[in-house]
Design brief:
- The chain is an alpha+beta fold.
- It folds into three domains: about 80 residues; about 100 residues, no CATH class; about 90 residues, no CATH class.
- It is built from 15 helices and six strands.
- A six-stranded antiparallel β-sheet has the order 3-2-1-6-5-4.
- Strand 5 and strand 6 form a beta hairpin.
- Helix 7 runs parallel beside helix 9 and helix 11 packs parallel to helix 13.
Length: about 325
């Protein structure tokens, strides 16, 4: 009899533990969603917010309307909606309402039990918390295999999520490599996408005789040294200026307009270093014109810079 009572207690305790674990999982992988209209056709802005441990984690991005099975975004007025987003990592079951294509509701996430094991076999361990994130970003097993086959340095589950967020895929990597880039560092690939380094940009620069490395490309985009801007400088006689100098032009404000105004004052083609020095020390066309009005003409750039350094206004 005592054995039976003990067995019954263990079964009961196991059931309680299972219910508690299930409830915790539901708390960890549940939350709310909202859908608003996007500026892009056939797209909506989908924000999903996971409620966990007294806090909230949100992600918002444009999704194709086809990602929401059974939802008619063209239907006017209010409608109740139920849809399930199915990923390799699990299913996100959503319910709520839309009014004229916008609305919100709640969701629950059911993780796929096989996914962590298969990802681990590929070399990308996934814990319970991360499994929801990879589901939202659609880090599929096929995508993980593709990226592994690209032999990318520093690649892990977090980088796979970042790749999906910033649209680093095999086509992007292959296009960069076709332009002579190594394209094998995960951080650099994400930085390329964040700052807008494209295969076309690399192609255009190589067409001008440049062989930029990854860091230089990112710096050029950060400071706005685009191929189009470089072409404007070329029209003014500044061709084949090294990329570091071009970046310095952007940092210090050496622009085509600045060069044109100097030419109008008789400084037809200052050396790149002189242009940078003028901007650093605030030798502006207005400053030069002011000096001329006071009778100080035919000053060299070195003299103008020296005057500024010594506070001669």
């Amino acid at each position: 009899m005592r054995i039976r009572r003990t067995l019954a207690f263990l079964i009961f305790a196991g059931c309680v533990l299972a219910v508690t674990t299930k409830n915790r999982a539901q708390e960890t992988h549940s939350g709310s969603w909202t859908i608003t209209k996007s500026h892009s056709p056939e797209m909506v802005e989908f924000m999903i917010s996971e409620h966990r441990h007294g806090g909230m984690s949100s992600h918002s991005s444009d999704w194709a309307t086809s990602d929401f099975p059974g939802v008619d975004f063209s239907k006017p007025g209010r409608q109740d909606v139920h849809f399930t987003i199915t990923r390799d990592a699990g299913k996100i079951a959503c319910e709520g309402y839309l009014k004229d294509g916008e609305g919100g509701g709640v969701f629950s996430f059911q993780p796929d039990a096989n996914y962590p094991r298969e990802m681990s076999a590929l070399g990308f361990p996934i814990d319970e918390e991360k499994q929801f994130s990879v589901a939202v970003q659609d880090v599929s097993l096929e995508f993980a295999r593709q990226m592994k086959n690209e032999h990318i340095e520093g690649l892990d589950a977090d980088k796979l999520i970042a790749f999906r967020i910033f649209k680093v895929d095999a086509a992007f990597i292959h296009a960069l490599r076709a332009e002579g880039m190594k394209a094998s560092d995960s951080d650099q690939l994400v930085a390329f996408r964040i700052h807008g380094v494209t295969p076309q940009m690399v192609h255009d620069l190589r067409g001008e005789g440049y062989t930029p490395d990854e860091d230089t490309l990112v710096a050029m985009r950060i400071h706005g040294a685009s191929p189009e801007w470089i072409a404007q400088l070329k029209q003014r006689g500044y061709s084949h200026v090294d990329l570091e100098t071009l970046i310095a032009f952007r940092i210090h404000g050496v622009s085509p307009d600045f060069i044109d105004k100097l030419k109008g004052l008789g400084y037809a083609h200052p050396e790149p270093d002189d242009l940078i020095a003028m901007r650093i020390h605030n030798v502006t066309p207005e400053y030069i014109s002011g000096l001329r009005q006071r009778g100080m003409r035919d000053l060299s750039i070195d003299q103008l810079v020296d005057m500024r350094i010594h506070g001669i206004d």
